[in-house]
Amino acid sequence: MIVTITGIVALYIFMLAAFTGYEVIAKVPVILHTPLMSGSNFVHGIVLVGAMVALGNAHTTLEKVIGFIGVFMAAGNAAGGYVVTERMLEMFKASGAKPKPGGH
Amino acid sequence: MESSMLGGDARPWLIQASYLLTAFLFIMGLKRMSSPVTARSGIVWAGAGMLVATLFTFLYPGMTNFGWMLPAIILGTALAWWTGRRVAMTDMPQMIALYNGFGGGAAAAIAAVELYRGEAMSLTMATLAVVGGLIGAVSFSGSLIAFGKLQGLIRRSFRFGGQQLVNLVVIAAAVAVGALLASGHATGALHVSAFFVLALLFGVLMTLPIGGADMPVVISLYNAFTGLAVAFEGFVMQNAAMIIAGTVVGSAGTLLTQLMAKAMNRSIGNVLFSGFGETGGAAAGGAVTGSMKPIEASDVGVMMAFAQKVIVVPGYGMAVAQAQHKVWELCQLLIERGVTVKFAIHPVAGRMPGHMNVLLAEAGVPYDLIADLDEINAEFETADVALIIGANDVVNPVARTDKSSPIYGMPILNADKAKNVIVVKRGQGAGFSGIENALFYLDNTRMLYGDGQAAAAQLIQAVKALG
Questions:
Q1: Is-contact A6 B192, C-beta < 8 A?
Q2: Are B116 and A62 within 8 A, CB to CB?
Q3: Nearest residue to B253 via CA among B213, B214, B225
Q4: Element (H, E) at B389
């Protein structure tokens, strides 16, 4: 472990992050609900770094297999979440903007 | 464990700095994603954050098993990237469910590695590992069921008497085994395995009875679950990036779930513990009087071409018929003639709130022509034509008037207030919920029967014929 985050400090981080999440989303228009859900789905793909550390410290074969599955799924969460969010948001444009050539 | 920057190992410091940067990029990214003007750049900011954190994590002291790690990362990324590129916009909700389930599964896997290892942990840490594992596993199996349902792989609803009781027993058993594990009263692979089997089973049982129409709310809820699971496992791993990102998603996802449920006129408890999403409307008869009056496309063409203002109300049926491109082509013709055209989007017009906006955006409709319920409802009175295409329940005036209707109280688009209402519809059947639509029988309503795409093509011809 590099830094220790325990006790009251952990609770502070938890509380402030929870408020941040609430405030960031609070005023979002309905038109962005789906992309935003997809975007927040991408953000929890950060579980990848935890899965990497868990696999990186695995000893038994069982731990390694579970770690492998964890890293695989986390990478899927991050990559898939990014691609679908990006594809959805790419399409939002104002009437002044030129349409994308050859779009499907 | 404090490392000095001078002469000591700089890697821990670098990792922490990278995680701080990642947390900043995530929050800025989400912030930018909450406005249509900056949304596109938001995901790029967040993506940069993910890349930074992933790369610096390789610097963790004492890491091994790179022979396992790299293939896992490459395989997971490649498969998800490939499927994510190919999926049709109409199928987006279930793909989000699938990727979200993967995240929950990964959080559960972290918990599993820690628990199977069986090293002594403090009560706090062990509890967080167990709770995170439970939530992650439920999110994993539940999301997979949600995916299966929306994808059409699971068609039945699996409801039986005493179902709630069975679910309660399963979750209670999972919590009990989890408590034994956390407190150190139970150890060993058998107990750990039993814990995860029970948790996964609960996710399946909890999701199976929920109807397709309610699934978006459930997916959003599992999204928040996964966020929390990631945050809890972040405490176990002492990983600030996971704690912050997971908590932000947990709270943002909870709020988003509430907003969605509200837009659908449901409470979250109602969604989870009742079966309206599939059976609603079975009791609906209602006293609808009058008759449906058909109209020809050529007449509608004239009506719209010489209108001042036309409001289009699209529904999921339009997307199923792949009519959005034709509809936009029609609207462009009208705009060229000087007609004011707007799109009115009900929050549940697509499979989930905002889904219809994505589908219209795909067809090239600029977002500033698209208005949501609150913005547009007052404007229907000044509209010459309201063109309803593929929408049904969301324009049903009984939601305002008939207290016995299952959709009573649901906010609807007041299309009936327009001077003329044109409903494009395949046939005379009832809507998704099976409720008879009083709008179709109004004096100012005309029915244009036919497939959405074909009808839109006829209207284009009709408007063009006017020169």
A1: no
A2: yes
A3: B225
A4: strand B385-389
**Whole-number percent of chain B with pLDDT over 90:** 57
The single-letter code of the amino acid at B366 is P
Cα–Cα distances (Å) from B21 to A79, B16, B53, B84, in that order, read 20, 9, 8, 27
User: Would you say how long chain B is, in residues?
Assistant: 467
Beta bridge partners of B341: B310
**Which three-class secondary structure state does DSSP give residue B382?**
helix
Instruction: Judge: B1–A1 Cβ closer than 8 Å, yes or no.
Output: yes
User: Does the pTM exceed 0.90?
Assistant: no
Nearest to B237 by CA among A73, A47, A67: A47
Catalytic residue among B214, B393, B402, B416: B393
Q: Which of B58, B72, B234 sits opposite A50 (nearest CB)?
A: B234
A55, B109, B116, B136, B178 from B119: Cα distances, Å: 15, 16, 8, 21, 16
Measured distance CA(B194)–CA(B173) in Å, rounded: 9
Sheet with B340-345, side-by-side order of all strands = B370-372, B340-345, B309-314, B385-389, B420-425, B445-449
A44 touches chain B (CB under 8 A): yes
Residues in a beta bridge with B132? none
Question: Which H or E element spans position B445?
Answer: strand B445-449
Q: How many helices (H) and strands (E) does chain B have?
A: 18, 6
* 3-state SS class at B424: strand
**pLDDT tens-digit map of B172-223:** 999 999 999 999 888 889 999 999 999 999 999 999 988 777 888 899 999 9
- B80/A83 CB distance under 8 A: yes
Q: State residue A95's pLDDT score.
A: 64
Give B233-272 pLDDT, tens digit per residue: 999 999 999 999 999 999 999 998 888 887 777 788 877 7
User: Tokens at residue B196, please?
Assistant: 């995860």
Reduced to 3 states (helix: H, G, I; strand: E, B; else coil), residue B149 is: helix
Q: How far apart are CA B424 and CA B451, in angstroms?
A: 8
Number of helices (H) and strands (E), helices first, in chain A?
4, 0
Classify the C-alpha dihedral A10-A11-A17-A20 as positive or negative. Answer: negative
ipTM, interface predicted TM-score of the complex: 0.89
What are the chain B neighbours of A73 within 8 Å (beta carbons)? 76, 102-103, 105-106, 109
Name the residue among B133, B82, B87 with its Cα closest to residue B110: B133
Cα distance between residue B157 and residue B165, in whole Å? 17
CA distance B286 to chain A (A): 31
How far apart CA A75 and CA A32 sit, in angstroms, is 25
Q: Is B46 on the interface with A (CB under 8 A)?
A: yes
Alpha-helical runs (H) found in A29-95: 33-43, 47-56, 61-90
Mutate to test the interface with B, among A20, A31, A90, A98 (most CBs of B within 10 A): A31
